[in-house]
Amino acid sequence: MTEPTIETTIKAIEAKAVEATIGVSPSLAPFASANTSLEVRTSTATIRQSLRASTADGVFATLFTNATGGALISSFFLELGATSNEIGLLAAIPMLANLLQPLGAYLSERTTSRRLYCCWIYGLARSVWLLLAIGIGWMCWHQIDARALLVWTLGITFISHALGALGSAAWLSWMAVLVPRRLRGRYFGLRNSAANLTNLISIPLMGLFISTWWGGSIQGYGIILGLGIVAGLISLAFQCLMIDVDPQILHHESDTTASTSSPDAKPPDQKIYQKHSQKTSQESSSSISSYSPIIFIIYFVLWTFSVNLSAPFFNLYLLDSLGFEISQVTLYNSLSAGANLLLLMVWGKLADRIGNRSLLLTVGVLVAITPLLWLGTGANPVSIWLWFPLLHMLGGGTWAAIDLCTNNLQLDIAPLKGQSGYFGLVAAVGGLSGAAGTIAGGFLASVDSIGGILGLFALSSVLRLIALLPLVFVQESCGLSLRQLFGIQAPPSEFASNPKKD
Fold first, then answer.
1. Residue 376: exposure state from Cβ atoms within 10 A (0-12, 13-18, ≥19)
2. What are the backbone angles phi and psi of residue 376, rounded to the nearest 5°?
3. How far is CA 147 from CA 51, 82, 121, 150, in A?
4. Exposure on the CB side of residue 208, measured as CA atoms within 13 A
5. Least C-beta-crowded within 10 Å: which of 47, 281, 360, 378?
6. pLDDT tens figures, 158-196
7. What distance in Å separates the CA atoms of residue 213 and residue 221, rounded to the nearest whole number?
């Protein structure tokens, strides 16, 4: 059987999304009778428009993110004379800004439109980067102090990410309603594949443009930044084409359904996999699974700290310690994006079949030991032509599963009522721990007694392995246990003999 194309995949998702929204998917059952602005039962075209608009939004938002973060802004900071501590502070700002996500969740739950709220918040967050573009232009033509521009950049980065943090929980809650639970792995795999294809093409082109621009790399970055801002605003135009959701009506319907619905009322055409999922969801009210949201937060705090202890410094290691050009680093990053693109759909389908937690644990071990593989690398031909490309492809392929499954697992275990608040809390504590990891990493990277950056990589690997332990105790509504996954205990025969169809 041949692998389906992206077009046929999205058509299948669209068809199943319509079916799920009218009463098949347990995740959307509380909203099936709501006379809300969601209006998803009216036509297949409405669902198709929202899914495709969301995918296009992801593509243009990726261009904006590439221009305002990652290797490009790290290289820009180094051109301004930043130290490793300042690079660490720059990387910590987005995570510190996440402390505002609970406030954003509180504000968004008091609005009547997810779409309007997100467009205003993200419009302001992206427009503020125009101030940096103006500052770069002023520096190029009036020779202002580079140190002043560095501080200016830190301030703009904080303002932008603080505004963006106010919208993150609302956007995630919006997508939780639009995409049925049993299709999230495949749909977000498709959406992320489109975004990573954009990464694959845009990052090396941006890096090449900056390094070859006749006016210098700082001026070249200013031009790329301006184009990125335009792309970010275009992505918001696609958000305006998505189905709107009124959180006030959803809260009312959730309360009404919780008090009147019977757990035995099941659609007659429910598939076996969905029966298994619904049964597991009913069992999730037990005392053990009720702790899953809390245990997930513990895992997320430990994981973000251990990852961000080293994550911002891989590019710094290449650019500063080894003296690579920005075009070389962006080429490596494009290899990572390519591997991410190739494996996203595979991870998405696998997550729908075996569950997100099981995939997070197995792939998480690979992600944990990856920093150890950077030990012994250097500016030699073997590392440049073989080892660094392989490391970036390994990282891109494995992080595709981590990002996808972390997002889907969070959507799965979040309580229906107060969903935005839970998303905001997770992001806030994760952001705080991630920022602490980045700041600690910036300090430890300059300590020779632990081996500098390479010693930091080794420490990060050990902490990542420890961080995976709480994930063992998290339960999700569907998916295989670790015993079932590794064949220690056979899964239920009905579920095993009737896998969920794509």
1. exposed
2. 90, -5
3. 44, 8, 30, 5
4. 8
5. 378
6. 999 999 999 998 998 888 888 877 777 788 888 888 888
7. 9
222-237 residue pLDDT tens: 999 999 999 999 999 9
Alpha-carbon distances of 436 from 202, 234, 299, 310, 497, rounded to whole Å? 31, 34, 15, 12, 47
Q: What is the SS3 assignment for 223-276? A: HHHHHHHHHHHHHHHHHCCCCCCCHHHHHHHHHHHHHHCCCCCCCCCCCHHHHH
Q: Across the chain, how many H-helices and E-strands are there?
A: 22, 0
The full DSSP string for 63-78 is HHHHHHSHHHHHHHHH
Max CA separation in the chain (angstroms): 74
The CB density around residue 375, as the number of other CB atoms within 10 Å, is 12
Residues 306, 444: Cα–Cα separation, whole Å: 13
Residue located via tokens 């919006």:
174
Rounded CA-CA distance 227/235 in Å is: 13
- For 463-500, give one letter per residue: b (16+ CB within 10 A) or e: bbeebbebbeebbbbbbbeeebbeeeeebeeebeeeeb
Q: How far is C-alpha 82 from the chain's CA centre?
A: 27
Please, what are the domains in the chain? 6-30+38-250+286-470 (1.20.1250.20)
Q: 436-462 burial by CB neighbour count: b if 16+ within 10 A, else e? A: bbbbbbbebbeeeeeebbbbbbebbbe
Contact present, 302 and 467 (Cβ < 8 Å)? yes
Nearest-angstrom CA–CA distance, 434 and 412: 23
Region of 447 please: left (phi>0), alpha (psi -120 to 50) or beta.
Answer: beta
How wide is the angle at C-alpha 481 spanned by C-alphas 479 and 484, nearest 5°?
A: 105
Q: What's the CA gap between 480 and 421, in Å, rounded? A: 28
**Residue recorded with tokens 């599963």:** 401
User: Rounded to an integer, what distance in angstroms lies between the CA atom of residue 188 and that of residue 420?
Assistant: 19
pLDDT digits (tens, 9 = 90+) for 2-25: 444 444 444 544 444 434 333 333
Q: What angle do CA 56, 29, 425 make, to 5 degrees?
A: 65
Q: How far, in Å, CA of 255 to CA of 404, rounded?
A: 30
Q: Is the pTM above the cut of 0.85?
A: no
CA 380 to chain centroid, in Å, comes to: 34
